[in-house]
Each structure stands twice: as structure tokens, then as C-alpha cells.
Amino acid sequence: MQPSFHRRPGTTLVEILLFLGFFGICAGVIISVIAFSNEQRLRQQVVSAVDQEGAQLLQLLLRRVHSAERILDPASGHTGSILALQMADEAQNPTIIASQSGTVIVVQRETLQQLTSSKSVASALTVRNTSVSLSRQSVEVSFQLTRTIPLPSPLSFTRTFELTASLFPSDAPTGGQCGCSEPSCEAGIYRWNVCTNDVCTEAAISLSCL
Q1: CA 19, 21, 27, 32 torsion-angle sign
Q2: How far apart, in whole angstroms, are the C-alpha atoms of residue 106 and residue 96?
Q3: Which pTM was predicted?
Q4: CA–CA separation, 63 vs 165, rounded Å?
Q5: Does the residue 90 lie in any domain?
Q6: Which domain holds residue 130?
Q7: 66 occurs within a structural domain
């Protein structure tokens, strides 16, 4: 009895090309899904970071306003880009909050501290004195924080934050005993005086202003 041999069909070039094409499509879809997921994750991280930083800054501003004795600048009913507060403690008097070179800063007497992260750009700081009287002082503050989303084609995310706060009434203010002149903007330079041994002297630092 003679053995019989059967030719087994092989894989044709067309089948190989179809397989490679199908594999390429699947790989492309998977890569696209991974890239999209990564982009969404980066977006959410930036949004969360901006929201957290903005909320922390609002709380800090609220504490500063609550502990102040008087709003020095802007004047009642006026709007500006710098908030100056009279404090009871001369080591913190005046306390000035402003935006400088894309950061929000606070100055206590002559000590400057940056309040916002180097990863954020602060802009549009607006201060409106909404006081109805010297005994009922209040202020509205708004600002924007922007961060870059690190994507192949970078995008930016911006959030606006707003705060309305009232000063806690003080029956006997103790700050400003020297009677120094109030902070002011002259020729683009914001200057103020500090009280040292009952004598007013110009602060050793200054800020830019509009």
C-alpha cells in the first residue's frame, strides 16, 4: 500500500499582509487610547494643582484681612492692583499683597515672601475696597492662576479666584501709632513707610505699580 501525501495549504503573502495590517490598526488604536488617557491624566493633575493652590492662597488672604485693623490702599470705593493693610503688630505693619512678575507676594513691613508656586503664573490681581465706613471695612480680591499642561503641543489652564472678606472690628487699634503716610504709587514705584522707635522711615524695599 502506497502512502499518500497531502499538500497542506501554506500562508499566502496576502494573508500575511492582512495580518500585519490588522495588527497595525490594533496597535494604533491601543497607542491612541494610551496617549489620550495620559493627556487626560496630565490635564487633571494641572487642574487639581491650580485649584489647590488657589484655595490655599484665598485662605491666606482671608486670614490676613481678618487680622488687619484698617485698609490703607485702595481707598474706600476704589479699585487697585495692590492691597495694603494696617496691622496691630509693627513687625507686620504694613502688610502689602501684590502681583509682581507673575507671582503673588506679601510684604510684612520690609520682608517679602512669594505666595505662589514657580509653576504658576499669577495675573489680573484686582482689589476693590467695598467698605461702607471705617468701622465696617471690607474688600473684594480676585486673581488668576495659569499653569502649562506638559503635552507635546503644550496647552495652558487658567482659573479665576475671588474673595470677599470683612475686617474684624477692633475697639482700640494699636497699629500705625507713628502716623506714617499711607502707601502710594508714584511714577510706577509703590512706596511705604515703617515705624521705628516712633519715627517714620521709608521702607528699604519697594514694588512696581501701575
Answers
A1: negative
A2: 6
A3: 0.80
A4: 9
A5: yes
A6: 13-168
A7: yes
